[in-house]
Design brief:
The chain is of the alpha+beta class and about 350 residues long. It has a domain of about 90 residues: ApbE-like superfamily (T-fold), CATH 1.10.3980. The chain has an eight-stranded antiparallel beta sheet with strand order 2-3-7-8-11-14-15-16. A three-stranded antiparallel beta sheet has the order 1-10-9. α3 runs antiparallel to α8 and α8 runs antiparallel to α9. Bound molecules: adenosine-5'-diphosphate and magnesium ion.
Length: about 350
């Protein structure tokens, strides 16, 4: 295993910037810092748009405003806790579970069709209809946050009962009529596994359509690079060491024109009797998946990267590695509970060696 390196908390927040600033590419004529940077708060997390090309202030403002409006639209469509006037969102669909089909925004329908496709692709490991089970874990996590002393995990029989309402076929989509219905009143949608990545990709699509290059989106940790840095050196980013306090990393990599998404046990969790329970649930055990500490996926499409980061997390390595190989254009890093790592051959090529300090 590689030795763990120390980094600052700020670095973790702005994963791309300081590494870029101290990289070997410093010698190149391009400035290391982005010329434009703006942040927004969507999906309960902070999102950044960086421009490394030095677009005029006006153009950066226009482009980032459009990125913001795309993110806002999906933030509202994907919200399972709040409704917004004039739109049918996931909260509306969940409330209406068992009722009549509802007319929904074509963009929400396109997303739900994609989510079904991803269910097939991942052999059901990533299932947006797992809402009933995820809700039980979510409630315990929230309660633990308020009162850690009395934290508890969901009752196993309640989990098993909830699991009876998670069939992907319960999500009924009528493309022609433009309607969606959840066919069971006890079933619900949860798109935590891929919603952010999907929205990120739509924003990236927009930037590409207007010819933007040298932009980076960091949407709550989902990184999407649009093109390359102007000096063609790629962007440096780090993969956090999942086993340590927040200030160290496992390796750093250089990426361009792609997404980098990590799912990890350290992201959202609560503790009961000294045992940590994180937020990625294995549909077989109905408990947090315990194959890995973290899983990183690099591929162009951010929605696929997000989907796979969650799905591979729930698969034994052999199965995950063969899925990744069959897809092509996907690199991954698996970090196991004992700290050991495996990666695709192409992932190893992205790793940047650091001079010993
Ligand atoms: P994050 O945005 O926190 O990095 P991930 O991409 O790792 O999230 O996905 C975790 C989220 O996905 C959970 O918080 C939950 O909402 C949802 N989820 C957990 N397990 C599954 C699963 N097996 N299938 C589909 N969604 C899941
Ligand atoms: Mg994910």
């Amino acid at each position: 295993m590689r030795p763990m390196k120390r980094i600052s908390a700020l670095f973790l927040l702005l994963a791309l910037l300081p590494l870029a600033a101290c990289s070997a590419a410093e010698k190149a004529p391009q400035p290391a810092e982005p010329k434009g940077m703006v942040y927004y708060t969507y999906f309960d997390t902070v999102s950044y748009v960086y421009d490394y090309t030095g677009d005029s202030a006006e153009r950066f403002e226009d482009r980032s405003a459009e990125v913001s409006s795309i993110l806002l639209k999906y933030h509202q469509l994907f919200d399972i806790y709040h409704e917004y006037s004039g739109i049918v969102n996931l909260c509306t669909l969940n409330k209406n579970a068992g009722g009549e089909p509802l007319e929904a925004d074509p963009e929400l329908i396109a997303f739900l069709l994609y989510a079904k496709e991803m269910y097939e692709l991942t052999n059901g490991e990533m299932n947006v209809m797992l809402g009933a089970v995820l809700r039980l874990w979510h409630e315990c996590r929230e309660a633990a946050g308020e009162d850690p002393e009395n934290a508890s995990i969901p009752d196993e029989s309640a989990l098993r009962e909830a699991a009876r309402h998670t069939d992907i076929a319960l999500l009924e989509i009528d493309e022609e009529k433009g309607t969606v219905r959840i066919a069971d009143p006890d079933a619900s949608i949860d798109v935590g596994a891929l919603g952010k990545g999907y929205a990120t990709e739509r924003a990236a699509e927009y930037l590409e359509s207007v010819g933007a290059e040298g932009y980076v989106l960091n949407i709550g940790g989902n990184i999407r690079c649009i093109g390359d840095r102007p000096d063609k050196s790629g962007w440096a980013t780090a993969i956090r060491n999942p086993d340590q306090a927040a200030e160290s990393y496992s390796c750093r990599i250089r990426i361009r024109d792609c997404s980098c998404v990590t799912s990890g046990v350290y992201e959202r969790y609560f503790t009961v009797d000294g045992v940590r329970y994180h937020h990625i649930i294995d549909r077989d055990t109905l408990f947090p998946a315990d194959y890995y500490l973290s899983l990183t996926v690099i591929t162009r499409d951010s929605a696929l990267a997000d989907t796979l980061s969650t799905a591979l997390f729930c698969m034994p390595w052999e199965e995950g590695a063969s899925l990744v190989e069959s897809l092509g254009g996907v690199e991954a890093l698996w970090i196991f509970p004992d700290g050991s790592e495996r990666s695709t051959p192409g992932f190893a090529d992205l790793i940047e060696e650091e001079p010993e300090s």
